[in-house]
């Protein structure tokens, strides 16, 4: 009888808390949303399943939790905590990104920079709410709308908030089609939304080959903290554009990025244990995350309007919203909102320029915050 | 290095290489420092992307001048993307449209042939 009692005390039923139950329910909701609503399924399914796995209560001393040294989950989580997975994902992203729209209209790069105002204003807002500077920096990068960058910076600056920041970042990336359009319409007039932009110029192969090396040198000499993320991003792009390493580029943008995404999502989900995730800080992080996306969208749109004061070939201000580097969702949102006004106005190609510039901009912002705050 | 020293000093963790005025209170000091970091950080991001955009704008001209020494034998390519590129490949889209049209025409011809035989 005593053996049975002892065994029962080791089961999850004996030690399940309300927090564990809530987190398991959240994991199920993520999986449900991913499957039924198609909300970022490649991320929410691994995160959701990881949340369920990570919140099964285990007996003390069994060493099964993601935070128990030597456990299998801890080895998977090492790639998150040490910041290994995000650069590998950036390698795959670089290998699938076409920078030609950005190369054909370089002034749209500035819209990617303008959208990073969401990062820094959110950083300030987090400080105002009482977060430590390192925590505020990790929260602010949610405004960069880049999941790997957010996880990378959080692992360096505020590992205790990594779960909440990752969930917030990926959740709001999935909600870009909901968050952005009202802000875009609020800040633009109908006449501005009807602006048609000149078709992009042709970009030579040589330009596309030189760009990754040159852009890496320029950006990392200015912000060395971004060397890891941008190095992998532009390395992947060089694999693609050099045309002599297509096999490596193909692997990077398919099998490799898929493997790392699985491990990253699952490990992040498993780290969202109730005692670390269900805190008042998490609620504040979610609120700040929503604010950061809104500010970033507004920043890009308003900066496009500001640029139009000096340009003869006007930019459609909607394109500024694509500076939020949720590639390619925010570019698709720009296309959708533009076509609501004029079905024959194709803004997608133009919007991809600030979209990919925003990836570079958010990586630079992360590098700056990491350099300054550590 | 300069910015790191500045950042560390602003957050009260550095050696005081750049002396600051007396803080009003610790939280107020943090907010002021945070505002400065936010402003400087945004300026750095803008600076980097401005330099990149200037380089991109100058690149065709540089390559044009180098073409006499290093001629470009490949034809300029506009949006020929790779199969898994995030940007649509116009050639592939046109090919897909052509294939669908061809298949549809073939199907209509076959249905006309079969209705002609049965009548």
Protein model, in words:
The complex is a heterodimer of chains A (374) and B (119). By secondary structure, chain A is mainly alpha-helical. Chain A has helices spanning 2-10, 12-15, 18-36, 41-54, 72-81, 85-96, 100-104, 109-114, 117-128, 133-140, 147-157, 162-174, 176-187, 190-193, 205-222, 227-241, 246-271, 274-277, 280-308, 329-341, 348-373. Chain A has one domain. The termini of chain A are far apart. The model of chain A has no long low-confidence stretch (mean pLDDT 92). Chain B has helices at residues 2-10, 26-66, 90-118. Chain B is 66% helix and 0% strand. Chain B contains three helices and no strands. Residues 1-24 and 75-83 of chain B have low confidence and may be disordered. By secondary structure, chain B is an all-alpha fold. Classes of the chains: A mainly alpha (374), B mainly alpha (119). The interface between A and B is large, with 62 and 47 residues.
Rg of chain A (C-alpha, Å): 22 Å
Query: Main beta sheet of chain A, described?
Result: none
Q: Report the biggest beta sheet of chain B as strand number plus sense, adding barrel if it closes.
A: none
Query: How many structural domains are formed by the residues of chain A?
Result: 1
Number of helices of chain A: 21
N-end to C-end Cα span of chain B: 88 Å
Average of pLDDT of chain A: 92
| Total of DSSP H or I helical runs spanning 4+ residues of chain B | 3
Identify the biggest protein-protein contact and residues per side.
Answer: A-B, 62 and 47 residues
Q: Structural class per helix/strand content of chain B?
A: mainly alpha
Distance between the termini of chain A: 55 Å
List SSEs of chain A in N-to-C order.
Answer: HHHHHHHHHHHHHHHHHHHHH
Shape verdict of chain B: elongated
């Amino acid at each position: 009888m005593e053996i049975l009692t002892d065994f029962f005390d080791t089961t999850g039923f004996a030690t399940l808390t309300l927090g564990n139950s809530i987190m398991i329910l959240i994991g199920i909701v993520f999986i449900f949303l991913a499957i039924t609503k198609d909300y970022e399924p490649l991320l929410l399914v691994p995160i959701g399943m990881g949340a369920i796995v990570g919140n099964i209560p285990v007996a003390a001393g069994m060493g099964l939790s993601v935070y128990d040294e030597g456990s299998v989950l801890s080895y998977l989580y090492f790639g998150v905590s040490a910041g290994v997975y995000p650069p590998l994902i950036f390698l795959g992203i670089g290998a699938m990104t076409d920078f030609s729209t950005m190369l054909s209209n370089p002034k749209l790069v500035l819209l990617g920079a303008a959208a990073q105002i969401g990062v820094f204003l959110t950083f300030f807002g987090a400080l105002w709410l009482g977060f430590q500077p390192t925590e505020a920096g990790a929260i602010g990068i949610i405004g960069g709308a880049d999941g790997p960058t957010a996880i990378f910076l959080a692992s360096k600056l505020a590992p205790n908030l990594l779960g909440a920041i990752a969930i917030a970042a990926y959740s709001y990336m999935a909600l870009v089609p909901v968050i952005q359009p009202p802000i875009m319409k609020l800040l633009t007039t109908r006449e501005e939304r009807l602006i048609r932009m000149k078709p992009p110029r042709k970009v030579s192969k040589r330009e596309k080959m030189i760009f990754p090396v040159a852009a890496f040198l320029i950006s990392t000499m200015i912000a060395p903290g971004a060397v890891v993320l941008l190095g992998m991003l532009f390395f992947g792009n060089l694999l693609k554009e050099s045309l002599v390493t297509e096999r490596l580029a193909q692997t990077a943008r398919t099998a490799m990025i898929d493997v790392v995404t699985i491990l990253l999502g699952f490990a992040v989900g498993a780290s969202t244990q109730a005692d670390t995730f269900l805190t008042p800080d998490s609620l504040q992080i979610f609120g700040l995350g929503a604010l950061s996306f809104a500010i970033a969208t507004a920043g890009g749109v308003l900066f496009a309007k500001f640029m139009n004061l000096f340009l003869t070939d006007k930019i459609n201000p909607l394109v500024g919203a694509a500076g939020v580097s949720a590639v390619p969702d925010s570019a698709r949102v720009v296309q959708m909102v533009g076509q609501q006004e004029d079905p024959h106005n194709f803004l997608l190609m133009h919007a991809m320029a600030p979209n990919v510039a925003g990836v570079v901009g958010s990586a630079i912002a992360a590098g700056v915050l990491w350099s300054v705050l550590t | 290095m300069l910015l790191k020293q500045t950042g560390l000093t602003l957050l009260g963790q550095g050696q005081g290489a750049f002396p600051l005025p007396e803080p009003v209170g610790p939280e107020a000091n943090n907010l002021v420092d945070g505002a400065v970091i936010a402003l400087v950080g945004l300026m750095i991001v803008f600076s980097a992307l401005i330099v990149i955009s200037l380089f991109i704008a100058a690149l065709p001209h540089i390559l044009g001048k180098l073409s006499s020494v290093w001629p470009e034998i490949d034809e300029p390519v506009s949006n020929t993307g790779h199969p898994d590129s995030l940007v649509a490949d116009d050639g592939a889209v046109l090919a897909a449209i052509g294939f669908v049209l061809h298949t549809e025409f073939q199907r209509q011809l076959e249905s006309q042939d079969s209705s002609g035989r049965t009548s």
